[in-house]
Amino acid sequence: MDSSKTANDFIELLFNADETICICPQPNHYGFLHPVESCGGQSGEFFVINPTKGGRSDSSVTAFRNILVEIDDMTLRDQVNHLKAIGMPFSTMVYSGGKSFHYIISLEESLSNKEIYKFLAQWIYNIIGSIDPDKYVDEQNKNPARLSRFPNVIREKTGRIQKLIYVRDRIKTDALLSWLKLYPHCKPSDQKPTTQKRHGSAGRGQMAKVVDWYVHTYLGSGYQDKETNFFQCPLCAEEGRDTSKDNLAITGDDRYFHCFASDDHNMHLAKKLHALKREHASSKTKLETHG
Where are the domains of the chain? Predict the structure, then answer.
């Protein structure tokens, strides 16, 4: 436990200064919105774990950054030991004032949409459950507008302090991905992490062919019998990132793709893949001409 950290440190880690936090006196309350930069002194028993522009709905969430993990049906000591055993990275830890600890994984780079967020959250929950299937993980925590316990206030029902235990750092996306990939058997098979614009069937089909070319011809690799496969991101490689981590997820027969290392890459990946294929075709033509 780090006794030097305060509730303000907690909020400043989870939220940016220009964002808005929703604080709720009770779980059935819609909540009050507060600018994070002037949040000092404002508290309730609960808060929405991600920044929001209009209350407690997923549609109001403005950044998909923070993932809540809460385990029930075991002692507090066992909860701590359970997550230590799997090596789960986390940014903050708060005692609920009741039967559980609330852990939040706060990412350095926000995810691009709710689908990606839920995909990662489900993978995390699958890992926790795979170690001991009899332990209960609250699946509703996949909701990005989920409530968590606000630190260092009194929980009305128990009279106990919702004590702040740890405030660490935000987690690098590639660090989280590296941990997740230690448990490939826990990867969700029915979620599609996507960020591309939805094209018509013809346009999507052409994009899928370009993605297949990249995997088979450019990388000399192939798909495994999984819904989602991971490969080297060409933009990560271009920037000299650690490409051994295979940051590019490609999902389903439609070949939707997403780079987990940099959200900015997802705006430019389609263009990059097309450019690589054109360059490859041009080089091949020159070799045939001068061969």
Answer: 7-169, 201-290
DSSP letter string, 237-291: HHTT--GGG--EEEETTTTEEEESS-GGGGGTHHHHHHHHHHHHHHHHHHHHHH-
User: Which residues on neighbouring strands pair with residue 248, listed in sequence order?
Assistant: 231, 259
Q: How far is CA 153 from CA 7, 42, 150, in A?
A: 9, 11, 7
- Cα distance between residue 194 and residue 130, in whole Å: 26
Smallest CA-to-CA distance from 2 within 171, 168, 161, 149 is with 168
Task: Name the nearest CA neighbour of 243 among 257, 229, 233, 251.
Answer: 233
Whole-Å CA distances, 129 to 36, 41, 66, 75, 125: 34, 37, 20, 16, 6
Whether pTM exceeds 0.90:
no
Supply angle C-alpha 164, 121, 63, rounded to 5.
75
Q: pLDDT digit string (tens) for 112-161?
A: 888 889 899 999 988 988 655 445 455 566 789 999 999 999 999 999 99
Q: What is the largest CA-CA distance in the chain?
A: 82
Contacts (Cβ under 8 Å, ≥6 apart) of 114: 58, 61, 64, 144
Please give the CATH architecture assigned to the domain spanning 7-169: 2-Layer Sandwich (3.30)
Please report where in the chains the tokens 């999984």 appear, as a residue: 226
CA distance 66 to 47: 12
Calpha distance 240→234 (Å, rounded): 10
